[in-house]
Amino acid sequence: MKFLLIFVSLLQFTTFSIDVNMIRKAYKVAAHDKTKIAELNKLLFSVTKQDNATLIAYKGAGIALQARQKKTIKEKKRLFIEGISYLEYAIQKNPNAIEPRFIRIGIQENTPKLLKYKSNIEEDKSFLLKHYKTITPKVLKKQIGEYILQSKSFSDKEKAVILVPK
User: Fold this and answer.
1) I need a labelling partner for 25 at 20 to 30 A (CA). Which of 4, 38, 92, 139 fits?
2) What are the b/e assignments for 80-97, b being 16+ CB within 10 Å?
C-alpha cells in the first residue's frame, strides 16, 4: 500500500512539474515544424484529463498535430478526433481559461474545411479580444498578440485592439 501511495504521489509530482512556458514554446515550434511534434507530445505524455485545463488543451493540440504526420486517412482522423476531444474537454472543464481557447482558434483556423472543425472561431475571437488586456503572464499575452496580428480571421479593426498602448 505504501508503494502505491508513493507511486501515485510521484506521478502527480511529475505532472505538476511540467513547465507551462516550455510547453508554450514547444507548441509554437511544433505548429510550424513537423519534426518537433514528437518532442511536444513527449513533454505532455503524463498529462491526463485530471490535470489543469491548459495542459489538457496542449496535450490535445499535440495529438491533433501528430495526425498530420500519419499516412492513412483513418489514422489521421482517429488522432485528430482524439486530440480535439482533449481540447474540447479542457474548454468544458474551464470555459473562462484563455489559453485553451487560444489553442482552439489556432487549430480551427488551420484545419481543412472537410474536417468541419471551424464552428468556434468567432466565439474564440470575441473571447480573446475581450480578455486580451487582462492576460497574464506577459509571455502568453505576447504570443496571443502575435497570433492575432498574423491571423486572417481577425479584421484590421480587431487587430487594432491589441495595438493600443498598454
Assistant:
1) 92
2) beebbebbbbbbebbeeb
User: Which DSSP string corresponds to 49-115?
Assistant: TTS-HHHHHHHHHHHHHHHTT-SSHHHHHHHHHHHHHHHHHHHHH-TT-HHHHHHHHHHHHHS-GGG
pLDDT in tens, 19-65: 999 999 999 999 999 999 999 999 999 999 999 999 999 999 999 99
**Is residue 113 included in any domain, yes or no?**
no
Q: How many domains does the chain have?
A: 1
Domain residue limits at 132: 18-108+118-163
Q: Is the pTM higher than 0.85? A: yes
Q: Which backbone phi and psi does 18 adopt, to 5 degrees?
A: -65, 130
For residue 7, being part of any structural domain is answered with no
Q: And the C-alpha cell for 143?
A: 504570443
Is residue 87, in this structure, part of any structural domain at all? yes
